[in-house]
Amino acid sequence: MEQQVGGHILVIDSGIGGLGVLSHLQKNLPKTRFSYVADEAFFPYGKLDNETLCARCADMVRKFDDVDCVVIACNTASTVVLPYMREEFDFPIVGIVPAIKVAARYTKTKAFGILATEATANSRYTRSLMDEFASDCTIKLHGSKNLARLAEQKLNGSRVLIADVENEILPLFTSMRFRESKRIDHVVLGCTHYPFLLAELKQAAPYEVTWIDPAEAVAKRVLDVIKPVMGGAARGRSKYYTTAENSQYKVRNIGFDKLIF
Ligand code: DGL
Question: What's the whole-model pTM score?
Answer without folding.
Answer: 0.92
